[in-house]
Amino acid sequence: MERDTRHPEEPEVAKRWILRLKTILFLSILRSKANSSDVMVAVPSSGESRPIYITRTQPQVDGISNRLPTCHIEVTMNAGSGGRSVRVSAETEWSEEPMSPTGRLMEDTGVHIVSVLGLGIPVNLPVFRAGIETELLPRYPRFCSIQVMDDSRGGKPRWVRTKVNLDDHIIVPMIDPAAVQCDPDKAVEDYVASLSMLPMDRRRPLWEFHLLDFPTSEATSTMVLRLHHSIGDGMSIMTLYVASSRSTADPARLPTMPPPPRRTGEIYQLQPRPPLSSGKALLAWVLWYLVLAWHTLVDCVLLVATILFLSDPRTMFMRPDGGLEAHRRKRFVHRNLSLDDVKLIKTAVKCTINDVLVGVTSAALSRYYFRMSGNIDTKRICLRSFLLVNTRPVSCRQIYVTKVETGNRLSSLICPFHIALHDDPLEHIRKAKRFMDRKKSSLEVTIIKVASEFLVKYFGVKAGASILRLLMKRTTIIFSNVVGPAEKITLCGHPVVSMGCSVYGQPQIVMNSWMIWLNPSGSLRMRPASIPFHRCRVTKQWATGLVR
Description:
The protein is an alpha+beta fold and about 550 residues long. Helix content is about 35%, strand content about 25%. The protein is built from 13 helices and 21 strands. Strand 18 and strand 19 (about 495-505) form a beta hairpin.
């Protein structure tokens, strides 16, 4: 019998080499047939607030990047304190659309959206869960995606598909029954305020539904959606709501949106040149462009000055720390105003709905300031507001049935905002109209949008985020406006009776967000340490009285 003289470790070495050859052969087949490539994943610990990093080597055919197939990734990671190991399993798929420059800015600044919906019936958890799974998730791919850093493309963030476990995203909290019985409205506001202090788990898609199943003064139950602003802006979330809901009056059809305004293009439409023989019309066209160029130049100079040194005067509406501690507890207060009353003032003053809402806010905060400060010598304080502008064509409101608007398509402008006492309260609205008409004859929105994309692309997201923080720290208030459906809706089997939206994570104390729909809602967020909660309520009640 012949003796086996092989080393005892040689079979194991041979097995490893055979396994390597099989792996190489398998990857070669994938590259040749499916145009695939290797994917290496490095997941940070749960205590770190950084995106997941993925490194890949992807071939190109004729200069065209190929799409990676779906793959299954198993990662074992350290959960931080306690030495526990958390096993993360995800079905990942590369998305060819990278994060937009605005989305990257929101990612770096840490801004989140909070949407509060009052429901007309108690929460039916199985029905609500089925509605999210069948309506919301298929229509909004970023609800099924996580943020990753693609090292093969200079470390730029991208969206990667992952398997969603709804148990991680639907939260039914336990709230003190005594607090609910004493003041249910305040219990809801306290809970929503607590969300501004809680981080989100970056190993999952950055969105959560919080269900508060007890009645308030406006609703039978409450649904709170919290998501990271990099997922989308207010208009994209609103189109998702409308596309995923049904009309309460006729459940067989989708709800309708308000008719579009006269403007159907982008935020600015240049006037066409009249014929050379038109005379006065041609002269008016030339003068219009000269005024546009002058206003744009002035706004750009003021914008640069704001970045360098120009700041609003210190008032009770600004942080004592200069906005350095943006991530502090926030208070969200929602109040309803009658849209018919707003339209009545709009017709009387010959302005827009936005002019009325800005004027109402100016009047309410002016009254609050002079009442709390006791400063009767100062008649006017010149502040500035940071207005968020949706740069999508207004026609996108009507195509939500076939396409839900995703991502962030935002720009901004800096508009004067006065704290003043007027004998006629409507003077606040007239002044807001003058300011907004002046801004409409400037390309400031376009300049800010192009400049922010240029900074992020060529100087990195840190440079763009730093300038964005400077602009927000040196202004006093943020204004935002979202147009909702023109009728009552039923979302995930639950009729919606009230709707409000706001954000947190920005340096300003005051964030005023208006939701315009069948029952329009005004949302005013303030830091309770600077402006007491009961004072916020008085201010909004006075604003409601002004409109009426």
